[in-house]
Amino acid sequence: MISVIVLYHAQQDGNTELMAEAIAKGAEQFGGSVTLYNTNEKRFDIEELRKYDAAAFGSPEYYNYTTGGLQIFIDDLFKARKNNREGLVNKPYGLFYYHKEGGKNAREFFEKLFRGFNFGPKIGSTIESVGAPDEAILQVCREMGRDLVHAVEK
């Protein structure tokens, strides 16, 4: 079974979490085994990343950057990759984020981080929700989950 992690940072309004749950649902509908992990609740052990076949990363926009827990994950990934890249890269991944207004700089920053890591093949466009995600955004999220599973199958 294809394992997918949806690693995200969600705070009080839960909009990023709604997007993460939709991605998980899409992956599960196509045979993926999904772990949802909110970095706002607990720091993610970077070594755990090695056991997943694909990943989706999400964050609310916070002053044009990703939020704390996801930023810590990115820092940990950078440090761990220096020692042993095996299992930490070459995974299909998707990006999603939420903001109340603006957000263009957050998208550029978020995409640049993962391009710089050469994390793996990026699946689809970065999903953006301005305000609470509507049904159209949630459908795109479900499609990302499906596409992550299909990318591993190929």
Provide the fold topology.
Layout: E1 3-8, H1 15-29, E2 33-38, E3 54-60, H2 68-83, E4 93-99, H3 104-117, E5 127-130, H4 135-153
Parallel strand pairs: 1-2, 1-3, 3-4, 4-5
Helix pairs in contact: 1-4
Instruction: Please provide the count of β strands.
Output: 5
Chain-averaged pLDDT:
89
CATH superfamily: Flavodoxin domain
Radius of gyration of CA atoms, rounded to a whole number: 14 Å
* CATH-defined topology: Rossmann fold
Could you tell me how far the N terminus lies from the C terminus, measured between alpha carbons in angstroms? 14 Å
In spatial order, strands of the major sheet run 2-1-3-4-5
Structural class call reads alpha/beta
Shape: globular
Major β-sheet profile: 5 strands, parallel
CATH architectural category: 3-Layer(aba) Sandwich
Number of H- or I-type helical stretches: 4
Brief synopsis:
The protein contains four helices and five strands; from the N terminus they run E-H-E-E-H-E-H-E-H. By secondary structure, the chain is α/β, with parallel strands linked by helices. It has a five-stranded parallel β-sheet with strand order 2-1-3-4-5, with helices on both faces.
Structure overview:
This protein is α/β, with parallel strands linked by helices and 154 residues long. The chain has one domain (3-153): 3-Layer(aba) Sandwich (Rossmann fold). 42% of the residues lie in helices and 19% in strands. The protein is built from four helices and five strands; from the N terminus they run βαββαβαβα. The chain has helices spanning 15-29, 68-83, 104-117, 135-153, and strands spanning 3-8, 33-38, 54-60, 93-99, 127-130. A five-stranded parallel β-sheet has the order 2-1-3-4-5, sandwiched between helices. α1 (15-29) links the parallel β1 and β2. The longest helix has 19 residues, at 135-153. The chain is globular. The protein starts with a strand and ends with a helix.
